[in-house]
Amino acid sequence: MAEDKAKDAKIEAVEAVEVAESPEVTEVETTEVVAEEPTEDIDTKEAKFAKSGKKSKKHIEEVKAEEARQARKAERAEAEANGEKPKGATPVTRPRIERRGRKYQEVAKLVEKDKNYTLKDAIELAIKTSPVKFDASIEAHVRLGVDPRQADQNIRTTMVLPNGNGKTIRVAVFAPIDVCKSAKSAGADIAEDEEFLKQLDKGTIDFDVLISTPQYMPKLGKYARLLGPKGLMPNPKAGTVTADVEKAVKEAKAGKVEYRVDKQSIVHIGLGKTSFGVDKLLENANAFLDSLKGQKPASLKGTYVKSVFLTTTMGPSIAVENIYN
User: Fold this and answer.
1) Mean pLDDT across the chain
2) C-alpha angle 247-252-254 in degrees, rounded to nearest 5
3) Closest Cα to residue 138, out of 159, 152, 123, 153?
4) Largest Cα–Cα separation, the chain
5) Which end of the chain has a smaller Cβ tally under 10 Å, C or N?
6) Are strands 137-144 and 266-273 parallel, antiparallel or unpaired?
7) What is the pLDDT of residues 155-185, one digit of tens each?
């Protein structure tokens, strides 16, 4: 029995030695040791960054990004100095005429770019170059040499076109009852007293011109934000605040228009429709230009009318001879 126990003990000792010297065990242990070393290095590196300031991780990354940007900038400058083209294709911008519609391009060929037409020829050409199927409006755009910031050069007035402007004007009158009756007989579409204010309270606006008497203007004060942006607030300069309401209604119905200079020193006005014909449009245009010349400020020393252009709705612009100073 003693000999058997001794043999068993000897066998167990040999097996223990073989397991200890086995290459598989050695590789596992070696792998475990190697895997632990990077973790210690990462922890050490992260510990070197400060929470904030110039030694923070964020600041160091920003510095590196800026250095890379400056390096790219230096490379581009060096390439340009050597005559090399910068990378990337130059964007191609088409001419404005090519971005227009086909019909516009066809009629635009009829207008000579560097030519100034007489007023009559310009009207004839404007009618001919209208690319739309509906009855287009003909507009005049006049650039003035005034300064709109100066009170005496801020041109604003009204006039009656001899042949109207081709638009159906709905006139509203806000005045006392007795005045409303005469306004109705003169052709006003709406003529009311307090009932008119109830419609404004609802935001209902179904008129193009609003005329009021001076004593009723304070009642319209609280509706300035509603009427002002639409250009419907009565104004003495426009002739829509007057005691002679009947006369104002007749003028509005007959084609009375208001024009004023904008911030770019340009006056815009509609002269009528293409269906008017050349004669009626020419009469309206001459009446407008005569009115505009009468508004020349006394303090203006330079050129008054710089340029005149005619155009139709969605049509090309046509330069007009400048003989109106």
Assistant:
1) 81
2) 95
3) 123
4) 145
5) N
6) antiparallel
7) 888 888 888 888 888 899 988 888 888 888 8
Residue 206 DSSP symbol: -
Among 282, 306, 244, 295, residue whose Cα is nearest residue 138: 282
> 192-209: per-residue pLDDT in tens?
888 888 888 888 888 888
32/304 Cα distance (integer angstroms): 93
Q: For a pLDDT cut of 90, what percent of the chain falls above it? A: 23
pTM (2 d.p.): 0.61
Model confidence band, residue 268 (pLDDT cutoffs 50, 70, 90): very high
**Amino acid code (one letter) for 219:** K
DSSP of 70-132: HHHHHHHHHHHHTTPPPSSPPPP---GGGGS-HHHHHHHTTS-TT-PBPHHHHHHHHHHT--S
**Amino acid occupying residue 129:** T
pLDDT tens figures, 89-112? 667 787 888 888 888 888 888 898
Question: Which tokens go with 271?
Answer: 């002269």
The partner residues of 269 in beta bridges, in order of sequence, read 140
Tokens read off for 57: 């991780």
SS3 157: strand
CA distances in angstroms from 188 to 35, 180, 184, 294, listed in the order given: 96, 9, 5, 30
**Separation CA 178–CA 174 (nearest Å):** 11
- In the chain, pLDDT over 70 holds for what percent of residues? 83
The pLDDT value given to residue 15: 57
Residue 187, sorted as left (phi over 0), alpha (psi -120 to 50) or beta, turns out to be: left
Long-range contacts of 232-239 (CB under 8 A, 24+ apart): 232/205, 232/207, 232/208, 234/174, 234/210, 237/156, 237/157, 237/158, 238/156, 238/158, 239/158
